[in-house]
Q: What sequence folds into this?
């Protein structure tokens, strides 16, 4: 389904909960998965090293939200194996049309291009909503692989300080 034809709610949020790329499915976390991560219980549908520390943080964030924006937090699932290999999030709601993205892929699945593939799809998804004109991210300067993920997703380096580089998509006009 092209992003331009995704179903939108009356508030401009994407109501579709599944997003498929060439090798991945980006789907919303289930209540059971959130509880399993928070309670350190393993699920058979997870890669052997999932969840990573960042996944546990995101599960806590989701659990603490009064509503669950399904378009925001997703698991990265390998289509071939069905195993969860990481997570990716749009940190909703956008602030003045800008939404931040964050992602992580477990060590056993790094170097396969999953982070770039998932990030490209989530950036396109965010930009397909009328509420977002720019997607942004920060990456530690000590993590050049993550910077490359953002560049492969079409994001441009737009600043840095002593610890982090800032990336953003080129702003587009509001719809």
A:
């Amino acid at each position: 389904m092209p992003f331009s034809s995704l179903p939108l709610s009356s508030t401009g949020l994407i109501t579709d909960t599944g997003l498929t790329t060439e090798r991945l499915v980006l789907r919303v976390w289930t209540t059971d998965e959130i509880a399993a991560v928070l309670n350190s219980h393993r699920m058979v549908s997870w890669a052997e090293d999932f969840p990573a520390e960042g996944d546990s943080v995101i599960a806590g964030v989701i659990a603490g939200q009064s509503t669950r924006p399904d378009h925001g937090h997703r698991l990265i699932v390998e289509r071939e194996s069905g195993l969860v290999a990481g997570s990716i999030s749009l940190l909703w709601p956008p602030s003045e049309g800008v939404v931040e993205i964050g992602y992580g892929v477990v060590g056993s699945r790094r170097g396969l291009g999953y982070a770039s593939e998932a990030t490209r799809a989530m950036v396109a998804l965010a930009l397909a909503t009328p509420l977002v004109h720019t997607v942004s991210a920060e990456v530690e300067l000590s993590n050049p692989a993550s910077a490359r993920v953002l560049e492969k997703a079409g994001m441009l380096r737009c600043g840095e300080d002593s610890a982090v580089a800032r990336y953003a998509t080129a702003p587009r006009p509001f719809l």
